[in-house]
Amino acid sequence: MARSTARVDEERKGSLVDDAYAAMRSAILDASFAPGYQASEQEIALRLGMSRTPVHEAAIRLQEDGLVRVQPRRGILILALAPEDVREIYDVVIAIEGRAAEIIAEMAEPARLKAAAALDAATEKMAKAHADGDLPAWGQADGAFHSLLIEHARNRRMSRIAQTISDQLHRARMLTLNLRKGLEASVEEHRAIIRSILAGDPVAALNAARRHRIRARDELLPLLTSYGLKHL
Amino acid sequence: MARSTARVDEERKGSLVDDAYAAMRSAILDASFAPGYQASEQEIALRLGMSRTPVHEAAIRLQEDGLVRVQPRRGILILALAPEDVREIYDVVIAIEGRAAEIIAEMAEPARLKAAAALDAATEKMAKAHADGDLPAWGQADGAFHSLLIEHARNRRMSRIAQTISDQLHRARMLTLNLRKGLEASVEEHRAIIRSILAGDPVAALNAARRHRIRARDELLPLLTSYGLKHL
DNA sequence: GTGTGCCATCTTCCATGCAAGATGGCATTT
DNA sequence: AAATGCCATCTTGCATGGAAGATGGCACAC
């Protein structure tokens, strides 16, 4: 069957459901599906060149991920993020990343050093991007740091939670990247986390990771509310 | 349409997908679907008196919950829990419940008192059940305590994570209830959490909740491995 | 002008058919 | 007897049709 529609042609791997999931997810993350938009499964299916069934099943998965709500007989609603949601999300991140840092600091030396090296590389990229005034690169390196932190804790459930949560924050991150002040502070706080890991000090690592995210939250939330962003 | 099969007849509310999800979930939790069992969607659909579609969609949701794995063209595999999984799960619980306790301790006084009262009621039920030697009642009250702790933190994402994680632990809890030693300690640790909340001391609450779950984990994991339970 | 109720339309929910992939047993070969 | 390859069978992936629920606009009554 030839894909008659332009849009998506990279279905090299996996099932149609996976394709639909990936396509819809990235459409939501890069905001080509705006929050509040109500899409019909039929329409999406048409655009993706498949039938309604895989779209429907992908929608169920996206709903579990908290990106959309499937409204019975109404359609698929792209969810917006209220400041209250951002607060919720940060509380989860504070909990999870704190524990991840603690776990890494408790590991045997070789694993600790390896993790610290990876984290350090990401942090130095941030410092360089900051020096160059390259904001997108800074954002990417920052994302990489937090992703590495979770990864090295070697806990699939934590990874999954972090992934979901990070998806939900994605739009907020993109939007506020230009407004953020604490770039310098972030780099220094990342270094504090790395130092605690190198020292094998779990308590210090836990607190450093928590402090970092708590500060970021306290910086981001006022921004959102002061700009009157009821949802994004 | 008359349900020809005996099994499930409570489909009062919601969609067939919801019914299938609820039926399969409880079948897994109470172990009438044993781990390792490979069910075909057709067979389940027949038993539930519906077609394959809603069963298939429910299976997707259960897979997101980590209870089954849908194997392409093979069937639905009921997942077992290895000690490694239990360790992973506890790390998530330690992170989430610690943060929940901290959040509650940071609330204004009325909310704190209300939460503490609810938690205290559950804890006293545990103490009474312990005195009566009523193990199932103890387990139920213990479950209620932890469920209340999350609930009062008022964070839907945390609640969802806690629910998922607690489902996964359900079988392990049932299995080890008879083996557990630290009933007394649990009650005392719960009281420590409640005291910290009453005092409005977030740091103490965080640490008390963490210590409680860390001890429980350190007590449970050796039990599992020493009994040679490779999976459950 | 305002409020009420009906109905055309849109949308998902679920059943079912077809096709393709995976498996396990059986026959055949060595 | 052991190994190999084939095929019948079982299973899901996906498409599609029928049915029922939800909505919003329009006509009608007041």
Layout of helices and strands:
The structure is a homodimer of 232-residue chains.
Chain A: H1 16-29, E1 38-39, H2 41-48, H3 52-64, E2 68-71, E3 75-78, H4 83-106, H5 109-132, H6 135-152, H7 156-176, H8 183-198, H9 202-226
Antiparallel strand pairs in A: 1-3, 2-3
Chain A binds a DNA duplex (30 and 30 nucleotides) through residues 15-17, 40-42, 50-54, 56, 70-75.
Summarize the structure.
Two copies of one chain form a homodimer. With 232 residues, chain A is mainly α. Chain A is 70% helix and 4% strand.
- How many strands in all of chain A? 3
From the helix content, strand content and strand pairing of chain A, which structural class follows? mainly alpha
How much of the sequence of chain A is in beta strands? under 5%
Shape of chain A: globular
* Radius of gyration based on Cα positions of chain A: 20 Å
Between the first and last Cα atoms of chain A, what is the distance in angstroms? 38 Å
Folded structure, characterized:
The structure is a homodimer of 232-residue chains. Chain A has 232 residues and is mainly α. Chain A has helices spanning 16-29, 41-48, 52-64, 83-106, 109-132, 135-152, 156-176, 183-198, 202-226, and strands spanning 38-39, 68-71, 75-78. The first copy, chain A, folds into 2 domains: 16-78, Winged helix-like DNA-binding domain superfamily/Winged helix DNA-binding domain (Arc Repressor Mutant, subunit A, Orthogonal Bundle), CATH 1.10.10; 83-226, Up-down Bundle (Four Helix Bundle (Hemerythrin (Met), subunit A)), CATH 1.20.120.530. Residues 1-12 of chain A have low confidence and may be disordered. At the A-B interface, helix 3, helix 4 and helix 7 of A face helix 3, helix 4 and helix 7 of B. The structure holds a DNA duplex (30 and 30 nucleotides).
